[in-house]
Hints:
Layout: E1 2-4, E2 8-10, H1 18-29, E3 36-38, H2 48-62, E4 67-73, H3 74-78, E5 87-93, H4 95-103, E6 108-111, E7 122-127, H5 129-138, H6 141-145, E8 151-155, H7 160-166, H8 175-199, H9 202-223, H10 234-240, H11 248-258, H12 261-272, H13 283-292, H14 294-297
Parallel strand pairs: 5-7
Antiparallel strand pairs: 1-2, 1-3, 3-8, 4-5, 4-8, 6-7
Helix pairs in contact: 5-7, 8-9, 8-13, 9-12, 11-12
Amino acid sequence: MIVKSRFHVLFNFRNINPTTKLNRINNIIKKSFCHVIITTLEEIGMREHHKKAIERLTESIRSNPKYRALIITGSVAKGVEREDSDVDVVLVATDKEYERRKKRNNILYYETQFCDYPGGYIDGKIVNLEYLRFVAEEGTEPARDAFRNAWIAYSDITELENLIRKIPVYQKSEKLEKIQKFYAQFEIAYWYAQEAKKRNDNYLLTRSISDLILFGGRLILTHNEKVFPYHKLFMIALSEVKEKPANLIELIEDLLEKRNSQAVENFYDSIKNFGNWEFRGIPSVRFMLDTELAWFYKTPYVGDL
């Protein structure tokens, strides 16, 4: 791998995963971290067409003074991409460029010209450095997980490496409070599922089952101090954690398929009896604060925390 900045260094890191390779490179150059670009990606271990797309985009961004950094995220960064996967990115713009785009509601990046494979495209969001600092300090779990295994393709920001390392870390200081929030939602979703059966209301049943699984699962991720990766990778995250109820994924699949009272009870009991959740207060009151009054307190939807 060749990295260019004020100097050239040749690296030959074979049989090492992409994130480790890039972390080693960053450690070597962090004292001189300026205008870093990856110009060859043979050692990264991704598909050739994804490498080429990133190389082309990197060269384009490097020559554009409106942008300060290019961060590779998503399935390509995590090493779980498919042959036809898109390339997810975060573009760090100058403050002036970011404000200009924000006023026009134009903070989505989408481009096909750098991809030479069928259906290929690059997309992501355009942010500024202030956004990254804010995510590192106060970001929700999905916002943090977006940077899991992310790596820098180009940057002139000295602090960017440390920010990228800091963002996807589980915030232990929030653990007990989140258990309170998620457990209340879990209990109320269980109550709604029972009500849906009584009323023969399929919409309410569908919504309550989804919430029962979401907040039951969030309790398990929180117990394991694992960041919630949002819905697309939720089941994968649950399957990966070490401490969870026996046959958790099977219970979820059974509930989604059968949608009957017994499946609801089986899943509910598996979560409730998994451990001492130490819930304080009345679930309906907590539910009201975190759901019905969330708009008043200007807080995010509890499922996205």
